[in-house]
Amino acid sequence: MKKGFIFFVLLVACGFLLSFINTTAGAELGLNAPLPLADEKMKDVSGKDVSLNSVKTAKGLLVIFSCNTCPYVKLSETRIKELSDNCQKQGIGCVVINSNEAQRSDEDSFDAMVKYASAQKLACPYVVDANSKLADAFGATRTPQCFLFNAKGLVYKGAIDDNVKDPALVKTHYLKDAIDAVAKNETPKMQETKSIGCTIKRVE
Question: What is the distance between the alpha carbons of residues 40 and 181, in angstroms, rounded to a whole number?
């Protein structure tokens, strides 16, 4: 009887914890979903406030959840720069979002972001996601994690390519192929992959 009661308590506790996690992070956006919190103002490294709607073009928008220090982001820096530039060349908006709210007084402070964006020569906005609001709305959990929208809604989500550790060994360029498809007003052949990276550091 005692064991059964303890098991019941643990089960309830686990259910509560899972409920809390899901409420905090939110369910990941489904394909064809519209931009969430599209008018939410975020501080860019330029010092200006921008929103997803202000960055989005008639063709669409690429949203990359990233940060300054994650080892997986470090391995992807050149690719993130190339893809963000490619978006702009093809008339697609791009924004890189830092949602690591738990590290604002450390590696992911605004000043550190300014230095990072300058070092990476990012031409697209690199913004602060205060209280991880955007990450929660997207259901984003990793860095780097990508969401590509066309004019109607979400058409690709997931990883940059199939080898985060070594760009020389990449066989399938998921995100690049998706961007090229959106630029041609086509639906990407691959629309969903698994992101591999560091967890977004939310405030608990």
Answer: 28
- CATH class name, domain 28-199: alpha beta
Residue 9 has a CB neighbour count (10 Å cut-off) of: 10
Q: Is residue 97 classed exposed, middle or buried when 0-12, 13-18 and 19+ CB atoms within 10 A define those classes?
A: buried
- Is this prediction's pTM over 0.85? yes
C-alpha 76/C-alpha 142 separation (Å) is 13
Strands laid side by side in the 154-158 sheet? 49-50, 42-44, 126-128, 93-98, 60-66, 145-150, 154-158
Strands (DSSP E) found in 52-183: 60-66, 93-98, 126-128, 142-143, 145-150, 154-158
What's the DSSP call for residue 151? S
- Mean pLDDT by 10-residue block, N- to C-terminus, for the chain (204 residues)? 39 36 68 97 98 98 97 97 97 98 96 98 98 98 98 98 95 98 97 97 93
